[in-house]
Write a structure and sequence with these properties.
Distance between the termini: 62 Å
CATH topology of the largest domain: DNA Cyclobutane Dipyrimidine Photolyase, subunit A, domain 3
CATH class of the largest domain: Mainly Alpha
């Protein structure tokens, strides 16, 4: 009997367990992707472009045999099953709050037509729910989570790319159900798709991995892998990457730790779904935040990269212009928003999700709460990043700032410490919108009030 292989956050053919399951008994397989209008609406143009480009490369790898349809999955998936006579739908398990609700609705709709949703594998090295304390309780702190995560371990990559599959031609499905992959015309600084992901990872392993632990915090260097968008859309599985990591070496060990953080935040969101938009530590609900007209003006200056703090402005302009921002700089700009401007972390998190190509609910929301002090394993509330000293430490020659803030790249700033403009800003660049020392003291006062 035919089966349905429903792609979601796994836009690849290598290391894809649901593909092996779908083709296990020689069944004909229809490969499909459902463009959910709810997710389209919440995705910025660049993230939608990366999705569309990844779908086109996947379709090419399948010789055009990828059916893309649009609509609510609980409506479209049962309809596709009826079209081809399938009674099983194979997927990678989704553990996000949205994904869990969606899959429950799809499973119920499939049951009504005599079909079954069969999840296999996940987008993670160790899926949420498997790394727990001896009593089954979830971890709230990363370090003990990491130790147990290492103990549990993970399987090697699935050999799915070599599986013989009888793919069903999408032409067998009514033309009214077929749509093109999205193509909003946005410019990307990163090639999408599985082939690009594998090539990029191989290049990083050869040229960047050994220095990763040292260079990963330097936005002025190409010291990161830029694999986050590929992990977001599943054009590569972290198992494929982990197979190349000799964890006894410093660089690979540091990289594996970041993959563990990805699993940790996914587990936290799965266990506490309200933490997507509410403080995980609810006592932080009582903290005083600014939300009036002045706060909105400060927020717009932050979004536009016009705060007068060069490292903050460089990060926000990189985000706006490329859909990416270096991780160290993400922490700096987030700290500035919540502790210098006293704005709700949710404002910044929402803006990031609108702009980032790699926008991932678990990583993004809990990264913001780490900076705000309200999440699991959060930075101490009294840790307030000084944007000037952070810039001097991690962008010592000002190369990153000069790349993204052209007002500070002219001859008048040659040889100048662009992070501390002692003679005042050059023409066209704003004065600092706040005094950091004053706002740090104010942040500590507000945090101190919540006990």
């Amino acid at each position: 009997m035919p089966t349905l292989l429903w792609f979601r956050r796994d836009l690849r053919l290598h290391d894809l367990p649901p593909l092996l399951e779908a083709a296990a008994d020689g069944s004909d397989v229809l490969a499909c992707f459902v463009l959910d209008p709810r997710l389209e609406k919440s995705s910025g143009a660049r993230r939608l472009q990366f999705l569309g480009d990844s779908l086109r490369t996947l379709s090419d790898a399948l010789d055009g045999r990828l059916l893309i349809t649009s609509g609510r999955p609980e409506h479209r998936i049962p309809l596709l099953c009826k079209q081809i006579g399938a009674d099983e739908v194979h997927v990678s398990a989704d553990f996000s709050p949205f994904g869990v609700r969606r899959d429950q609705a799809v499973a119920a709709a499939l049951a009504a037509v005599g079909a079954t949703l069969r999840p296999t594998g996940s987008p993670y090295l160790v899926p949420p729910g498997r790394v727990t304390k001896d009593d089954g309780a979830p971890y709230k702190v990363f370090t003990p989570f990491l130790a147990r995560w290492r103990e549990i371990g993970w399987r090697g990559p699935a050999q799915s790319s070599t599986a013989p599959v009888n793919w069903i031609d999408p032409a067998a499905v009514a033309s009214t159900l077929r749509v093109d992959a999205p193509d909003p015309g946005a410019d990307l600084d990163l090639e999408a798709g599985e082939a690009a992901a594998l090539a990029q990872w191989a290049d990083f392993v050869d040229d960047g991995l050994a220095q990763y632990a040292e260079d990963r915090n330097r936005p002025d260097k190409a010291g990161t892998s830029r694999m986050s968008a590929h992990l977001k859309f599943g054009t590569i599985h972290p198992r494929t990457m982990a197979a190349d990591l000799n964890v006894r070496a410093i660089g690979p060990g540091a990289y594996l730790r970041e993959l563990a953080f990805r699993d940790f935040y996914a587990a936290v969101l799965n266990q506490w779904p309200d933490s997507a938009w509410w403080n995980w530590n609810r006592k932080f609900d009582a903290i005083e935040v600014d939300t009036g007209p002045d706060a909105r003006r400060a927020f717009e200056a932050w979004k536009d990269g016009r705060t007068g703090f060069p490292i903050v402005d460089a990060g926000m302009r990189q985000l706006r212009e490329s859909g990416f921002v270096h991780n160290r700089v993400r922490m700096i700009v987030a700290s500035f928003l919540v502790k210098d401007l006293h704005l709700p972390w949710q404002w910044g998190a929402k803006w990031f999700l609108e702009q980032l190509v790699d926008g991932d609910m678990a990583n993004n929301q809990h990264g913001w709460q780490w900076c705000a002090g309200s999440g699991t394993d959060a930075a101490p509330y009294f840790r307030v990043f000084n944007p000037t000293t952070q810039g001097q430490k991690f962008d010592p020659n000002g190369d990153y700032v000069r790349r993204w803030v052209p007002e500070l790249a002219g001859p008048e700033t040659a040889g100048v410490d662009v992070h501390r403009l002692k003679g005042g800003p050059p023409p066209g660049y704003p004065e600092p919108i706040v005094d950091h020392a004053t706002e740090r003291a104010e942040a500590l006062r507000r945090y101190g009030q919540i006990g």
